[in-house]
Design a protein that fits this description.
heterodimer; A: mainly alpha; 3 helices; B: about 450 residues; alpha+beta; 5-stranded mixed β-sheet; 5-stranded antiparallel β-sheet; globular
Amino acid sequence: APSLSSEQLDTGVDWLSKFGYLPPPDPVTGQLQTKEALTKAIKAMQRFGGLKETGVFDQATLGLMKTPRCSLPDVSEGTVGRRKR
Amino acid sequence: SLIPQNKWNKRHLSWRVRTYPKDSALLGRDTVRALMYYALKVWSDIAPLNFHEVAGSDADIQIDFTKADHDDGYPFDGPGGTVAHAFFPGERFTAGDTHFDDDEAWTFRSPDSHGMDLFAVAVHEFGHAIGLVHTSAMESIMRPYYQGPVGDPLKYDLPYEDKVRVWQLYGVRDSVSHTIRPGGPSQTAEPPVLLDLPENRSNVLLAQDAPDRCSSHFDAVAQIRGEAFFFKGKYFWRLTREKHLVSLRPAQIHRFWRGLPTNLDSVDAVYERPGDHKIVFFKGLKYWVFKDNIVEEGYPRPISDFGLPLEGLDAAFVWLHNGKTYFFKDNHYWRYDDHLRHMDLGYPKDSTLWKGLPPHLDDAMSWSDGSSYFFKGKDYWRVPGSGMEVEAGYPRLIAKDWLLCTEMQSDSPDAEPKSTETRGNVQHHPDHAENGYEVCSCTS
């Protein structure tokens, strides 16, 4: 996987949150996404997009994220990252 | 997908293009409306849903071209990125509404790969508007990513994946086989019948018996799909919702409204039925019901079906105030409930209850400004809102306010001017006229 700048990483995380693969950031606590949740979200996005599930922001994944698309989420917000207690 | 699917509880859904692309050089308003019509038809062809274009602000599916943050929680982001979205069915005010990013270069039948194909995106978004969510299936129109044009709107056939999903929500439309899979025989060899779109009429021969719109009184007037139709003899004129004449030349009734007798010399009254949006024509003691511009089977039928007396009809219109249909004949009027299909009790009543209206109307219609309009002779009267009294300042001239005529103007062949003349916004060039054709250029 290419090494990403923090800006690219933020963009990728925003994208995943926007389309339902990550829970939206908590504006009160500012809690960060865990690495595990991020990997899981990337894999879900790749699976949904028909890409190889690498779990990282590779070129194919970044390319698909730049493809024009519908504004609506692909999965209900945060479903991928949530777990039953 | 993990998002629960909602669906409409009703099967008749209205739609309206509320705002258009700012840069309309590529796509004119009529083209945008036609593409929306065909994109919705893709779904209604296979599922028991019926879409009807309407005027006014209460359409189920409001279509907008907007940009950046437009106060719905889904801001657009300039060219590329997110290009459109639609709201799922439900009880919310925004349910069904569909928004296109006006920063995109919307195209149709573009010769190259540039731009965003409006028809392809509209089919996808209307899928959301009827309850479908995104899918990962590669062949599906409901994949979230833009995949380019999908071909001719008149021949587009949904992928089987999408058909199955919409059938799961709404069931299968009658006459559609849900067992035909890709690669099998086609469902029909003929393309489906489509609502006629405005034609280029520049080469249409001017009929010698065509009436003069500027000096006529009209047999019937109706608002249909938000547009105004003025009927006279065997002809009619059509005005867009912005009150622009589609053509200065009248069209022949039987050539547009398919199924009326070819020898029908006039109609008495016309109205668009609330609920199912079918169009009803009255002539004498008979009536016909149209779905779009095709007559339904089993018509004509007697007007006694409505509980009307066997004397014919002067006028028919739906009052926006209560959704009821009003019939006028001579000095009386009746109130009919099109949903329950029966005449309300207590009618007929004396038409003088509508203060300021003359008896023996030609016809009436409601309009997108919420008012009702009544026509007789060369005059018309306006009754605003839910009142039953004519507004001050009426009657006014139909020809001047509706049909783009100036005073003393005539466009009958006999009255053709001998030199270039401007009538309203149209310049006529008799020097270029030959063999019965007339050459005009529009200036607005």
